[in-house]
Amino acid sequence: MTDADLASNIARAAGAFLLSLQQESADGARGDREANTLILRMLRDARPDDPILSEESSDDPARLESRRVWIVDPLDGTREFGERRDDWAVHIGLSIDGVAVVGAVALPRRGVTLSTGAPPELAPANDPPRMLVSRTRPSGLCGKVAEALGAETVAMGSAGAKAMAVVLGDADIYLHSGGQYQWDNCAPAAVAAAAGLHVSRIDGSPIVYNRPERELPDLLICRRELADAVLAKVKRFN
Q1: Do the beta carbons of residue 207 and residue 199 sit within 8 Å?
Q2: Residue 50 annotated as binding?
Q3: Are strands 130-134 and 89-96 parallel, antiparallel or unpaired?
Q4: Could you give the domains of the chain?
Q5: 146: Cβ contacts below 8 Å, ≥ 6 apart
Q6: So which residues are the signal peptide here (predicted)?
Q7: Could you tell me if 88 and 75 are in contact, meaning their C-beta atoms sit under 8 angstroms apart?
Q8: 92, 208, 219, 231: most buried by Cβ count inside 10 Å?
Q9: Is 184 assigned to a binding site?
């Protein structure tokens, strides 16, 4: 089985499991914990030699010695899960030599799993462009950039849901400056890049994974034709 197929299978399985927990009125904390157990078991069964960096597990410094590291978020959007919203996700990513090469993002409430193995064809751009912002803590920088671009802002929950909204053509720009971790964007970045989108830090530099620090504070995923304009506005206001 290819890495992409494995990532998709695990993301779908974890998503289905989380939906079943929702039927039991489980909260986000239980979802995080039990989905993590399922994902770790499936990854270790299939790729026993690969280390795993997960939001819900203790960090193992041995990952820094490996070229291949699975980077996973068992439940991205814990709050949204608990509120029974649609905008939460499961992230299964694989970093090779610091690059997000393989990824799958499941949107279980929508019945969709997107992966690097079969990225969708990009839909036509929106006019005016639609820019995603956090529904609970939108940043001042994002607001300024959106206004300067004449973009319509769309509030949404999890990082994975936002990134996949750009992949699916529901939005055009996902700019994040408020702080994230590697598991928040490894799988989404891999899927977005495979779909032909621009993916970088907000200064335009490449995103490097499997670093000692787990934090990865900012991210830009957008249509390629908008990247230069977005980066220029970020440099102006940041």
Answers
A1: yes
A2: no
A3: unpaired
A4: 3-115 (3.30.540.10), 130-237 (3.40.190.80)
A5: 131, 133, 152, 153, 173
A6: none
A7: yes
A8: 92
A9: yes
Is 141 marked within a binding site? no
**Residues 156, 77: Cα–Cα separation, whole Å:** 10
More confident call, 25 vs 93: 93
Write down how long the chain is. Answer: 238
DSSP 35-50: HHHHHHHHHHHH-TTS
32 carries a ligand binding annotation: no
Per-residue model confidence as pLDDT tens digits over 118-142: 999 999 999 999 999 887 776 789 8
Q: What pLDDT, in 10s, does the model give residues 169-194? A: 999 999 999 789 999 999 999 999 99
Q: Which two tokens stand for residue 42?
A: 């499936």
Q: What is the DSSP string of the chain?
A: --HHHHHHHHHHHHHHHHHHHHHTT--HHHHHHHHHHHHHHHHHHH-TTS-EEETTS---GGGGG-SEEEEEEEEE-HHHHHTT-S--EEEEEEEETTEEEEEEEEEGGGTEEEETTSPPPPPPPPSS-EEEEESSS--HHHHHHHHHHTPEEEEES-HHHHHHHHHTTS-SEEEE-S--BHHHHHHHHHHHHHTT-EEE-TTSPPP--S-SS-B---EEEE-HHHHHHHHHHHHHH-
